[in-house]
Design a protein that fits this description.
cell wall; single chain; mainly beta; flat; two-stranded parallel ribbon; 5 strands
Length: 93
Amino acid sequence: IGSLGKDVNEQGVQNVTVRSTTFVGTTNGFRIKAWGKPSNGFARNILFQHATMYNVQNPIFIDQRYCPDRNCADQVKKKKKVTHFFCVFFCYA
């Protein structure tokens, strides 16, 4: 789920289910990215279910100050709302 909050009046993301996934040798497993600038964007009711990960550096990565080019002058300290986040039957090896 990516680039939340890039625009000020963003609708946000909700009611997302990711089911029966396998990650092998990746940098990130489940990832949520949000720009660190003023926005109405949000992520809520996110369900990750039945996930298996092998040799994954960051099984769950939530980046609330995403800045792809490292030159984001309008970054703010207030973070986006990430609520109702669930992991069910999560295996990591």
